[in-house]
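TA notes, week 10

Several of you asked for a full example with nothing omitted. So below is the full record: structure tokens for the whole chain, then the designed sequence directly under it. When grading your own attempts, check the secondary structure regions first.
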């Protein structure tokens, strides 16, 4: 499978016809619409931790990095799914995986979603 960069906003890899793989983003395309808008919103949720959003402290997800990492992954997965369901209900989470090094304590969520427009 090829990795496509879409306007350098977020890494999105189409897994099958209707499932999209999304990772965190640092850029926002204010002209995004349709599926791209929904995927960008999911990517933005993945890149936002709870508390740094002024005036909206509940937005994002709370990251646990305390060992054991398997427990932290399960907690974070539940929180990610809850955040995506709450803040972008048009995206249905199919799978959550993590990239990174547990020895360093860095986990990057990779979420597969189906888009319901």
């Amino acid at each position: 499978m090829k990795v496509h960069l879409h306007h350098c906003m977020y890494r999105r890899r189409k897994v099958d016809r209707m499932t999209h793989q999304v990772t965190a983003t640092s850029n926002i395309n204010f002209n995004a619409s349709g599926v791209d808008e929904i995927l960008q919103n999911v990517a933005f949720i993945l890149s936002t931790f709870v508390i740094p959003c002024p005036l909206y402290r509940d937005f994002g997800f709370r990251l646990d990095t305390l060992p054991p990492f398997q427990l932290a992954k399960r907690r974070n997965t539940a929180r990610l799914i809850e955040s995506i369901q709450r803040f972008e209900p048009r995206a249905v989470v199919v799978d959550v995986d993590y990239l990174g090094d547990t020895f360093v304590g860095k986990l990057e969520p990779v979420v597969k979603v189906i888009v319901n427009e």
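The longest strand covers residues 91-101. Use that as a sanity check on your answer.
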